[in-house]
Write a structure and sequence with these properties.
Helix content: 40-55%
Bound molecules: 1,4-dihydronicotinamide adenine dinucleotide
Order of helices and strands: HEHEHEHEHEHEHHE
Strand order of the largest sheet: 3-2-1-4-5-6-7
Strand content: 5-15%
């Protein structure tokens, strides 16, 4: 680790995977990683704008960037994509398990399929990514997993009732903390818990009822305001940090 602090934030030579990289937080984070000099693997599911974005990032920052179509709720696809990334980039330094979705409804209004969908993307998706990236980390003897959870994993968010989403986020937060211990000899694992950000997800029912006004800052966050936190966690500026869960919510959970 360099002793000059700005040097510690440089990601040159590192390989970073970002899931959910076509939109919102994931897109901003992939951009931040590339700007800091990392080679990036953009995982996307439905929005193939990630393909073009990866080409733009490669040109703009003179890095290597490739896009992979992966449904993170499908273990076989995750396993295959992890080995493709290792084949294409030779290693994985940082894996950012960011893809997620919400169906913001009370449990009594929710179908079983809606329940299972959230579990499969938010829980299975993170577990599968961690499992297959973790195999690579163990083999390499190094690695860094960052999980996008939510402040909804800390608190029962009001006034929108979304018990299943909240519980998926509590699950992945505790799962990631457990991995920080399990992987102590070869990898760091940290959690980002955002509050209300102005993404597609943040534009749903949560924005309509303006729940973000209940935060100390009284506004939504912009995705450019979350880039620095992921950069910090991905970089050698945070080498003593593992198992931490960082809230970034404009002072909602106080
Ligand atoms: P977004 O909806 O803009 O992006 C989510 C991304 O995940 C999309 O690119 C989508 O295609 C991808 N995705 C969904 N299902 C997938 C699947 N089965 N396989 C692969 N990719 C899949 O939402 P946003 O806000 O950028 O969300 C990113 C993460 O941040 C999510 O985990 C979300 O739960 C979390 N979060 C967002 C907050 C917000 O206010 N925007 C607040 C707290 C947490």
């Amino acid at each position: 680790t360099p002793s000059k602090v700005l040097e510690q934030f440089r990601l040159h030579g590192k390989v970073v995977v970002v899931t959910g990289a076509a939109d919102g937080i994931g897109l901003a984070v992939a951009d931040a990683m590339a700007e800091a000099g990392a080679n990036v693997a953009l995982w996307y599911n439905s929005n193939d704008a990630a393909v073009q974005r990866s080409q733009e990032l490669a040109r703009e920052y003179s890095i290597k960037a490739l896009a992979y179509k992966v449904d993170v709720s499908d273990a076989a696809q995750v396993q295959k994509a992890v080995s493709e990334v290792v084949h294409d980039f030779q290693k994985i330094d940082v894996f950012i398990a960011n893809a997620g979705m919400s169906i913001s409804k009370p449990i009594l209004e929710q179908t079983l399929d809606e329940y299972r969908k959230q579990m499969s993307v938010n829980v299975d998706g993170v577990v599968f990514c961690a499992k297959y990236a973790g195999e690579i980390f163990r083999r390499q003897g190094f690695g860094n997993l960052i999980v996008t959870s939510s402040m909804s994993g800390h608190i029962v968010n009001v006034p929108v009732d979304q018990p299943v989403y909240n519980a998926t986020k509590a699950y992945v937060t505790h799962f990631a903390k457990s991995l920080a211990r399990e992987w102590r000899d070869f990898a760091r694992v940290n959690i980002v818990s955002p509050g209300f950000f102005d993404t597609k997800m943040g534009a749903g029912p949560l924005a309509l009822n303006e729940a973000y006004r209940m935060s100390a800052m009284g506004r939504q966050g912009h995705v450019k305001e979350i880039k620095g936190l992921y950069l910090y966690l991905a970089s050698d500026a945070s080498t003593y940090m593992t198992g931490s869960d960082v809230l970034i919510d404009g002072g909602y959970v106080l």
